[in-house]
Design brief:
Number of strands: 23
CATH architecture of the largest domain: 2-Layer Sandwich
Strand content: 25-35%
Number of helices: 14
Largest sheet: 11 strands, mixed
Number of domains: 3
Mean pLDDT: 95
Strand order of the largest sheet: 3-7-8-14-11-10-9-22-23-21-20
CATH superfamily of the largest domain: Bira Bifunctional Protein, Domain 2
Shape: globular
């Protein structure tokens, strides 16, 4: 691990991000442009995210399955809007087994086409519905400007694909996933506050009737799309001729949803909570919630190490993920810096003086505060501290988002200046016309991140862009 100081967030945020991802052992670039090697520490974070999401997905009645990585281009082509939306990013296999393929195969950019061509064989009657399925997979979209975790040519994700008898059921499904699966995980596990909203027409998923989104704000003032849930209507069912006999005997097309969250959530963790010393991980997602660093001298080594092992066992019995860092070749100061960089929420320092006092020194990563805790109270004290760190990181991120949100700018010029400098979210009345949306993007590089779900249509007022009557509020920002 490099001992050089990290770049300052305020000076060069992209350089800070890249160095933290590399030095903390999250990921590194691979020989394939735009594809990454996820290292054990980064993958452990992803595994926790995966478990939390998977538990919630299954709790809402869904089952996991798996579809192939390769999609015949003729199948992909049957949904025109999907093909049009993903065409620049699709990777093709044209040769295999030493021969040219009769039909090129697309490497999965998303699975709607392949899955709905299969659902045509699975659905005949309303009794076959709903289909509530999810898969964990990898995905390939050829990125022009890759960045570790945030935009990579290959990434890991889950993608849900459901079919329903009625529009009402499908809409309820899309919103249940948004709120009960994604928002619950992202806010309560990752401690990242998110705006719940729907996309404008130009920002929707290709082929969707409506795209619902969770938008987070990073510490550099840019937005990150954390997860999306799409209401697809009957478009995919019609494209792939999926029909069922309804309760009244008539032939009908089912209504569809799809939804996904990816490894970009790991990047979101880094950029939401990190500081100039590295990561600050919320306890619920941290691979190690506590690290114990024994501070030993040769004549006291056995007693200190035994005490460290005992404390670790007590914490593990209480359900805490803990590591004892007893590497003899490294000094305590080096270990402190390393675990701060890796963002472990709580550090326990234990030496002969602590043993003599019947206590340990406990340091929290989020604030740097230290306190003495009696050995007999370590388990209860650490449990309370972990809860406090989890809540504190969420409140800190929420406060940062509020500080970086401009509400109702007084003029178009104020809006553009704010967005051009990527200071954060800007919330303003919008007439709903694509021309105004495109104008803001051209003038500031910002896009409409969402039309908030928790706000009513704008009160009578005028669009910040054109002065026409506003129909809603929009949230703009530059984004990753």
């Amino acid at each position: 691990m490099s001992t050089n100081a990290l770049p300052a967030q305020s000076g060069d945020f992209p350089a800070w991000y890249g160095e933290v991802v590399r030095r903390a052992g999250l990921a590194e670039n691979s020989p394939v442009r735009g594809a990454m090697v996820i290292k054990p520490y980064g993958y452990a974070i992803w595994e926790t995210i995966q478990r939390e999401l998977d538990d919630r997905i299954k709790a809402t009645g869904h089952e996991n399955l798996y579809f192939p990585l390769l999609v015949p281009t003729s199948v992909l082509a049957r949904e025109g809007k999907l093909v049009e939306g993903f065409a620049p990013e699709v990777a093709l296999v044209t040769e295999a087994g030493g021969k040219q393929l009769e039909e090129p195969l697309a490497v999965r950019p998303t699975s709607e086409a392949l899955i709905w061509s299969t659902y045509a064989r699975w659905v005949q009657s309303y009794r076959d519905l709903p289909l509530l399925y999810n898969q964990w997979a990898n995905c390939v979209r050829w990125e022009l400007r890759p960045r570790l975790f945030l935009r990579t040519s290959e990434f890991l994700w889950q993608e849900g694909h459901t079919a329903h008898e009625t529009e009402k059921e499908a809409l309820a499904e899309a919103l249940t996933i948004l709120h009960d699966v994604y928002a619950d995980t992202i806010e309560n596990v990752l401690a990242i506050p998110v705006l719940r909203g729907r996309k404008s027409e130009s920002e929707r998923f290709p082929g969707a009737v409506d795209t619902y989104t969770l938008e987070a704000l990073m510490r550099d003032g840019k937005a990150l799309q954390a997860a999306t849930s799409h209401y697809l209507g009957q478009g995919f069912a019609r494209a792939f001729d999926v029909r069922f006999t309804g309760r009244d005997g008539s032939e009908q097309f089912p209504y569809a949803t799809s939804w996904g969250a990816t490894t970009r959530l790991v990047g979101g963790l880094v950029m939401t909570h990190g500081d100039d010393r590295g990561l600050r991980l919320p306890p619920r997602v941290a691979p190690q919630q506590v690290v114990i660093v024994p501070i030993v001298r040769e004549d006291e080594e056995a007693d200190v190490l035994q005490a460290a092992a005992t404390v670790a066992d007590e914490l593990r019995a209480a359900g805490v993920r803990v590591r004892v860092d007893d590497r003899p070749e490294l000094r305590p100061g080096f270990k402190f810096n390393e675990w701060e960089l890796k963002g472990v929420p709580v550090r326990i320092e234990l030496g002969s003086r602590d043993l003599a006092a019947g206590a340990v020194t406990v340091a929290r990563r989020d604030t740097g505060e230290k306190e003495q805790v009696p050995l007999a109270q370590v388990s209860a004290g650490v449990a309370e501290l972990l809860r406090d760190v989890q809540a504190s990181l969420f409140e800190d991120a929420h406060g940062e988002r509020e500080r970086r949100t401009l509400r109702d700018p007084s003029s178009y010029d104020e809006l553009i200046e704010y967005l051009r400098e990527a200071r954060g979210f800007a919330v303003a009345p919008w007439c709903g016309r694509g021309e105004c949306e495109a104008r803001v993007k051209a003038d500031s590089s910002a896009t409409i991140r969402c039309l908030p779900l928790d706000e009513r249509a704008a009160e009578p007022g005028v669009c910040v862009c054109c002065g026409r009557p506003a129909v809603t509020s929009a949230v703009w920002a530059q984004a990753y």
